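Exercise 7. Predict the structure of Epoxyqueuosine reductase from Mesonia algae.
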Amino acid sequence: MLNNTSRYTKLIKDEAKRLGFMSCGISKAEFLEEEAPRLENWLHENRNGKMGYMENYFDKRLDPTLLVDDSKSVVSLLLNYYPQNFQTENTYKVSKYAYGQDYHFVIKDKLKHLLNFIKDEIGEVGGRAFVDSAPVLDKAWAAKSGLGWIGKNSNLLSKKTGSFFFIAELIIDLELDYDTPVTDHCGSCTACIDACPTDAIYEPYKVDGSKCISYYTIELKESIPESEKGKFEDWMFGCDICQDVCPWNRFSKPHNEPLFNPHPDLLQMTKDDWEEITKETFQEIFKKSAVKRTKYDGLKRNINFLET
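Solution. The predicted structure, encoded as tokens:
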């Protein structure tokens, strides 16, 4: 017979699966000792570029008990976003995670359901849901929870499913059974390092955020440096190069989340269509998409940068 802790753990994992999450792993809510010096050095070397927010809440990023009082467990969840169909060949490219509706809203909804389910089934459980917009080191927690290992491109990789998934978590004040990390399976492969056109992966397992195409096309609000001209390989929002070349992504399977399906026009648009895009078309295609973060003017800036 299962004890309460194991029963609660099974309940949560079963419900996560029912809600459509690809995987669920759980780890003890405690200070991230190994990550602390890494994060400190990364910030000290200005690898965050103009992403000043990365310097905020340093202590909270490393200690979940500062985010949720008396927290005991970090429940990490993966949600697949690998698409069934892709953009047409020879066009300006959008990162696959932004094909459909903004993942923050889609996942937040599922997390609320999961948290309410926990409260209904187990009782008075305190906790909070997090989807990448809060000071939580998602990949570190997912790795601790056995959902994969952090690869040389600094993405979480899974032998079964690759890396085209979102990571989210619930931090709760309930003790559960904890999973153990898996081993690293990057081996001697350097596909991601060799393929990165801006040399953002400056050494294995270390990424300079300020050199990443995703940073230039989404985070950077000023002009993209002229020195980067000709390096973007037609990526106008985000970049999937280091994931596309990763051998583990041959195991990626299409998601079954209707909200992540793209607007039909997105997949068909040619370079000419993008160069002539109007504000109205932008708002129609990206109505509920994460691409809205860059706004119409930001996307136009990126297209002009690729064009000339």
